Amino acid sequence: MDTTALLESFGYLVIFASVFIESGVILGLVLPLPGFSLLFTAGVFAAGDKLNIAAIITVGSIAAILGYIAGYFTGAKYGRKLFYEKTTSKYFTQKQGQVTERFMKKYGYSTLILGRFLPVMHSVAPLMSGFAKTPFVPFMIVNVIGGILWVLFASLLGYFLGQVVPHAQYLAIPFVVATLIIANSPAGKRIVNRITNKIETS
Fold it and tell me: How far is 123 from 71, CA to CA, in rounded Å?
């Protein structure tokens, strides 16, 4: 999917739609939406004065936060029916539902933050959180923190590289890989754990 062409044609609208759907709407699991690369490329555009970096961050953050809220309530409404009422499915069983609930109760807040930076998990994390009945207030705190951090990272990375590297928009995919490595590194996990421990004990 050509993010440059999308941005040139639809600007902030495509940023909002792509980030919102990818951030928690079920369609984000089946549509190849370029959330990170779109924000990165938008940042490069802002470096060339084609878009406004503050507007990109604002639109992207709102879309990311609203997308997670939509995913949360979708999981809360349909998750238990999927796992506990339709037990004939080999893909969604009561045992899998119980494992998911235990996992989210133990690692839920870390998953919500790290999930922002991981493909697939980006869309799955809020659904799992709603299904596991994560308390809404701490969910929202982590949602806002994670959403803003992700948008800032992707867009500002593109913005600063766009000022010094020619055709920086083509670096989006390598940075997706780098993000995966950083997010799963011991240092990255320690930072997330410190944040979530404060939230859990507050």
Answer: 8
Predicted confidence (pLDDT) per residue in 69-125, tens digit: 998 998 888 877 766 665 555 656 666 667 777 778 777 788 888 888 777 777 788
Domain residue spans of the chain? 3-201
Torsion of CA 7, 29, 126, 75, to 10 degrees: 130
Single-letter amino acid code for the residue at 188: G
Q: Degrees (nearest 5) of the Cα angle 70, 109, 57?
A: 55
pTM score of the predicted model:
0.77
Phi, then psi, of 106 in degrees rounded to 5: -90, -40
Q: Which of 190, 34, 57 is nearest to 113 (CA)?
A: 190
Structure confidence by residue, pLDDT tens digits, 12-57: 998 999 899 888 766 655 555 677 888 988 898 898 888 999 999 9
- The whole-angstrom separation of Cα 172 and Cα 198 is 32
The torsion of the CA quartet 141, 146, 147, 148, rounded to 10 degrees, works out to 90
> 94-114 and 136-164 helices cross at what angle (nearest 10)?
50
